[in-house]
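Anyone up for a design puzzle?
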């Protein structure tokens, strides 16, 4: 059975990759401090910034492929901690690419729709990254360095994602639902658009990239462009919660450390041609409610 080295096991995406990985792969996942236990998944504690430790892990595990999902992902945090964001998002990614290139094994790198500034959506893979914040800039630079070090690596730009999650790394929908259940209001943007995808669809897309996407950039966005506010309305209806809990807001009304892209919608036609098939959002949310 081939062995997949997965970074970021304790994160939302990494946990779902390990949970939903095809049975044909044996997953070895890295965590920094958190403990994550999943049936059939081997967890390794590792500081990815420790180059010697990472190289030792490669020697010990002899992976047949690497899926790099670990990153500093909070745009506001990255904006205030640029050096840390650069170290984790750029330097670690380039080092992993070099190790994979040396061993000639597949590498799938999870990037983001926020490599774009939101001024020319929907974005195709060939569109030039133009990030609006430090987080997006770090991921765009990681893409550039990975493609320089290892042209055969696959780069998957991920959208806003939602789905089941473990308690230490929820998706953005869990806090929304919990807040409304507590009787709180949710301020959601009417002028910020994304192409959300479920964790299920995202994981299927990543393994599709692992199988068919060597050397490619793929956009794994969902099939529907939707505002944060309209997504919130759909979420409330699906979970039988009051839509009155949603308070419409404009981006300029909510001060934040990191500038935000207004429309980071991804064109997923290239991935769909390879077999990527996200469900409609309404169906994905119904499935989430069923599994919750």
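Challenge accepted. My sequence:
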């Amino acid at each position: 059975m081939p062995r997949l080295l997965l970074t970021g096991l304790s994160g939302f995406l990494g946990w779902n990759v390990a949970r939903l990985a095809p049975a044909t792969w044996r997953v070895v996942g890295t965590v920094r401090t958190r403990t994550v236990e999943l049936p059939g998944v081997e967890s390794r504690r590792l500081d990815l910034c420790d180059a010697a430790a990472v190289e030792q892990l490669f020697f010990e595990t002899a992976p047949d492929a690497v899926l790099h999902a670990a990153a500093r992902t909070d745009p506001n945090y990255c904006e205030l901690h640029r050096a840390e964001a650069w170290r984790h998002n750029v330097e670690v990614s380039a080092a992993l690419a070099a190790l994979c290139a040396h061993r000639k094994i597949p590498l799938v790198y999870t990037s983001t729709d926020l490599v774009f500034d939101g001024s020319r959506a929907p974005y195709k893979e060939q569109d030039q990254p133009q990030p609006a914040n430090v987080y997006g800039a770090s991921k765009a630079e990681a893409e550039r360095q990975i493609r320089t070090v290892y042209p055969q690596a696959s780069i998957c730009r991920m959208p806003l994602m939602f789905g089941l999650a473990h308690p230490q790394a929820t998706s953005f929908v869990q806090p929304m639902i919990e807040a409304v259940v507590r009787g709180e209001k949710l301020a959601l943007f009417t002028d910020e658009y994304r192409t959300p995808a479920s964790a299920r669809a995202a994981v299927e897309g990543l393994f599709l990239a692992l199988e068919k996407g060597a050397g490619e950039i793929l956009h794994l966005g969902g099939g529907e462009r939707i505002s944060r506010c309209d997504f919130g309305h759909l979420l409330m209806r699906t979970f039988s919660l009051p839509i009155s809990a949603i308070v419409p807001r404009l981006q300029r009304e909510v001060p934040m450390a990191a500038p935000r892209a207004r429309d980071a919608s991804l064109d997923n036609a290239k991935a769909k041609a390879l077999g990527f098939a996200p469900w409609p959002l309404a169906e994905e949310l119904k499935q989430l409610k069923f599994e919750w």
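A detail worth pointing out: The longest helix spans residues 82-103.
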